[in-house]
Design goal:
145 residues, globular, binds zinc ion, ASCH domain-containing protein, Archaeosine Trna-guanine Transglycosylase, Chain: A, domain 4, alpha+beta, PUA-like_sf
Amino acid sequence: MQAISVRQPWAFAIARGGKTVYNHPLPTAHRGPLLIHASMRVDLGSCDSPLIRSAGWDPRDPLATLGAVIALADLSDVCSAAARGEPCACGPWAEPSRHHWRLSGVRALPRPIVALGRMEPWQPPPSLVTSVHAMLATATAPRSR
Ligand SMILES: [Zn+2]
């Protein structure tokens, strides 16, 4: 498993708003589980953008937090067309001149898990992975009577 630290409100847009493309300067060979970590930095200028509004950005939402893991996604593919200056069909979240890390099966955590992030993609410690799996298992377990 790997993790990426994403500035708010973009991390929220992945967790809750259907943002299925993560724009990064570099490609990655990683495929599979990818933790979405909200970094300590906020992209204030984008909070009023139409895209972020369409994602239902809500500063009062627990997942609008900073410095915590807020979702688990599956990194299914990386599109490098835009990085080569070519058109692609990655949709409204894709930015020009970037590699498009395509996310699927995004599951928002029931509540954030505080963690230190990094600028570059990072390897989450086993204890963090265990916490995420435990939380998601609880969240999806059928309610007992
Ligand atoms: Zn693309």
